[in-house]
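fold-stage: in
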Amino acid sequence: MPTITALARILVPIYSTREPRFRHDRAVPIPALPTLSAANEVSTMPKELKASARTPLTRGQYRDVAAMRDAIKLIATAV
């Protein structure tokens, strides 16, 4: 598989999906970096909901960081 295709398979999902690989998001508009998009709304959330927003944001952060690490490794091996 060409490196650019492998890189796209890593990076495109973190920009455009909430679900893991082979799962489909519903046909609704999805913001860029969907697993982190709730971070924009935390400041306007009621205090009692802010703590519950932390877990999905942390999971989204882990997902995106892991994908970036995979992309860096792929690029390093290609160079």
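fold-stage: in (second)
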Amino acid sequence: MRRILRIWPLYFAGLAIGLCVVAFPVPRPAEIAWTAYAFLLGNWAAMSANVGNNPMIILWSISVEEQFYLFIPWVIKFSSRRSLAVFCVVLILIANVWLFFLGRAGIRDEFIWFNSFVQFETFAAGILLCLFLRGQSPRLSIPLRLLMLLSAFACWYIAIAVFYAPFQGLANPGSFNLIARYALATFGCCCILLAFLGVSRRVLPAWAIYLGRISYGLYVFHLLALDIALHILRHHVADGIVLVVLEGATGLGITTLLAACSYRFFESPFLRMKKRFEIVESHPV
């Protein structure tokens, strides 16, 4: 219930915005695609071109998260720590088997990216990290945290530069490249979590903490904000690097404004309701 109160209100508000963006009357393929989003199957709908360039197509990853929540609470409820770890390892193996066969079959890269079974690798890795830490934040020195942060960016850079960029434009980069790319991305995510878990609030600037608090809204609204920024600027600025820079800066400002308003006036009432279902005390809204 607490996750529903955190995720669903803004998810369905974003979905409503996405429907408003769609030209009316709604073409039947697009109608079917957005119906899939309503039932938290948006990632499978996003594999087609039926949703077009709608700024709310980004909600596909929320669908993946909610699909994971369909079964993982029950697995945790009825599993020991060891059996949960085994389950996560099996889930990672399944993801890599999928990648292997998708690579062998020559499936287009975007169809792989939206695949739930592929994305579950990172979820399973996150649970394994939790089990390893045993509910405690890591006590790491600042140099070691910086090393973890650099390792994360190194993993992501290698995943892009070595296992993605050379194959752009190709239908499929092959099984090995897919497996290596997703493994590096997952390991990088674990490194960045370790770099920040347990860091004292005193060493973080207040604006960074606030952006973390409204980060869900930043995620939901960023494509919409970039579209608004481009619509405003393209009548006044010629195409080129200046337009790109101004679009990014203006989009960042609009994104932050929309996310802040959403958090203050729309999300906060739902977040306060989480107290009714609280077992572990949450941070204040």
